[in-house]
Amino acid sequence: MDPRIEHRLLQTRRHFLGRATTGIGAAALSSLLSDVAPAASPPGNDLGVLGKPHFAPKAKRIIYLFMSGAPSQLDMYDYKPKMNDLFDTDLPDSIRMGQRLTTMTSGQKRFPIAPSMFKFAQHGKNGTWLSELLPHTATVADDLAVIKTVHTEAINHDPAITYIQTGAQIPGRPSMGAWLSYGLGSMNRDLPSFVVLTSSWSAKRDAQALYERLWGSGFLPSRHAGVALRSTGDPVLYLSNPSGISPEIRRRMLDGVAALNQQQLETIHDPEIAARIAQYEMAFRMQTSVPELSDTSQESEQTLNMYGPDVHKPGTFAANCLLARRLAERDVRFVQVFIRGWDQHGNLPGDIRLQCRDIDQPCAALINDLKQRGMLEDTLVVWGGEFGRTIYCQGGLTKTNYGRDHHPRCFTIWMAGGGVKPGISYGETDDFSYNIVDKPVHIHDLNATMLHCLGINHERLTYRFQGRDFRLTDVHGNVVHDVLA
Predict the structure, then answer these.
(1) Contact 425, 412 (CB under 8 A)
(2) C-beta neighbour count of 265 within 10 angstroms
């Protein structure tokens, strides 16, 4: 944002606060209203910097299911039957074409082909190919748009996950959820517009770390950063009042802090102070809204059974998918559900079975749950990771065991609801699932398409920082109209 505009907005806020007669706490609540027209916004609805979407949106919100560590497209979605005849033969140079390798396999003397040991079958009206690892996902095949040709430049986890989440491999940019919060604002005054859930996983191995910057606000105002809910103790740290502190005492304390912050804001005009006031007030309201959100005791037995037995264990992917639906139901704009453990360089068949057992039934349940509540049509659900896995084996290869290295050249994601064509497969890779032969989708294209579903022209949602305009898709990105309804 132009700093002159930000200063005018602060002037407007000061004028509004000066006219308020119900105490600094209520005035601070009102500062959460629209950055564009604070006094005119309807209660509980922050319009964001855009004021309204660029065009009519198909989706109001996004639930992003992120498989951190890179799931194998070869063993789940990208069926390559011809590879069975090439077991343990060397990957042809004509396929690899000198493309770079990670340090984990660059020293291997050969690159033996490891066909998937899992059976595939076609599902749904359009015959979407899915692995036997995903029997529940197969039941919602007609709701999915499976994109097999997503690609990225990053070949290692940290830059790759940073890239797909923020649009740049180097840390410091805002995440997608932060961009949406900044652009479209919040639809719920009692919960953050961007919530993050991290899940436990079953594969018995170390996993890549998740950093808070993956849901950070970067150079955007800090109030747009994602709020991570915990599965044990208070869902948010220090959400409960300490012993001996009543809500009334907490309210008086916040009013005093808000008054001090307002004095500082009047003096130096730093918009981060306004963000701090807003965050204190949001935390106060979350003391009521978050416990109610987390209480699933009123969910029907039918709903709980749909998500599977793990739904009763806080922090599991199943429990978090149910929580994601409850957040979407309460009009949280962007919900990100992470699950780690997909970095399967060795013992892939054993580990991927456990991982798919974690996510298969909850993914299908989430689609069906949203659908039966009439919410799928305006909720975009996205499933994917940061890159794919190689057709060649890392380490020892047998008929029943193999590992796969990182592969950024092609990988699979799926989307459902929120303006996406249901029951389609998009794009084609070669027989080795190594190179794209038709309809490539760069991660900038993917992010541009997700923004498009929410009515945003990705080229027009920008923020001026250090002398240039930044956006989620950097200077790239094309909407993939072929996957849109």
Answers:
(1) no
(2) 22
DSSP state of 72: -
Yes or no: say if 403 and 346 are a contact pair by the CB < 8 Å rule.
yes
The radius of gyration of the chain from alpha carbons, rounded to an integer in Å, stands at 24
Q: Where are the alpha helices (DSSP H) in 373-457?
A: 443-453
Query: Which residues, 6 or more positions from 404, have their beta carbon under 8 angstroms from its beta carbon?
Result: 72, 74, 114, 344, 345, 348, 389, 390, 391, 392, 393, 394
Q: What distance in Å separates the CA atoms of residue 300 and residue 384, rounded to the nearest whole number?
A: 29
CB of 105 within 8 A of CB of 141?
Answer: no
Percent of the chain surpassing pLDDT 70: 86
What is the phi/psi pair of residue 181, to 5°? -60, -45
Evaluate whether 473 touches 448 at the Cβ level (below 8 Å).
yes
Q: What is the DSSP string of 370-384?
A: HHHTT-GGGEEEEEE
**CB-based contact 322:307 (threshold 8 Å):** yes
Helix H or strand E segment including 351: helix 348-372
Domains of the chain: 47-249+302-483 (3.40.720.10)
Distances in Å between the alpha carbon of 88 and those of 79, 334, 336, 350, 397? Answer: 18, 44, 39, 20, 7
Length of the chain: 485
- Extract the tokens encoding 49: 């910097």
pTM of the model: 0.86
For residue 22, how far is the Cα from the chain centroid? 39
Residue 32 carries which side chain, given as an amino acid letter? Answer: L
Q: Is 271 left (phi over 0), alpha (psi -120 to 50) or beta?
A: alpha
CB of 175 closer than 8 Å to CB of 218: yes
Q: Quick one: which of 200, 204, 160 has its CA closest to 406?
A: 160
pLDDT block averages, 10 residues each, the chain of length 485: 52 46 43 35 64 96 98 98 98 93 94 98 97 98 98 97 98 98 92 95 89 96 91 68 74 77 79 71 68 87 97 96 97 97 96 98 98 98 98 96 98 98 98 98 98 98 95 97 97
Contact by Cβ (8 Å): 286, 186: no
Q: Which of 93, 102, 29 is nearest to 70 (CA)?
A: 102
Query: Residue 342 carries which side chain, given as an amino acid letter?
Result: W
Q: In this structure, are residues 254 and 25 in contact, taking their beta carbons and an 8 Å threshold?
A: yes
Alpha carbons 342 and 397: distance in angstroms, whole number: 19
